[in-house]
Amino acid sequence: MIELHHQLMNGINYVNIGRKYVATSIVDFGRYDNKAISSETFIYVGQGGNPKVSANARVEDQKLKGGNLALKNSTDMGCSVKVICGRQRVNSEKSDKRYTYDGLYTVTKCWEEIAPTGKYVFKFELKRNLGQPKLNHEISVKAN
Length: 144
Known about the structure:
The protein has 144 residues and is mainly beta. Helix content is 8%, strand content 40%. Strands 1-2-5-6-7-4-3 form a seven-stranded mixed sheet, with helices on one face. Its main location: nucleus. This is YDG domain-containing protein.
């Protein structure tokens, strides 16, 4: 068995390497406004300050700490990140979501912008590493 992601409630898993937090995997649970650009590129929204995560969550600016800092460090260091995506199951399946491993991606950009909530969020552009098998599911591309 291969460990893909061990943080049960966080979308960003990370480890400490040489006094720096570095992301090892991310999960797209569908609770943030992540956006597929193509089957090879998507935009991942950082963690924190999202009212969709919990009824008691406060809407606030995201901070450059924890998983967000780890993804930023992964950008700076060129480290690959495992990506796991949650997708809606079809009617015959037992649970609402199915999680699939989409492969290794490199975080190529990191920036901050104002979300529809009026608060700052971190966004990360991830590009799928070359030489991996094609994805066996379709990613719907949302137009800007």
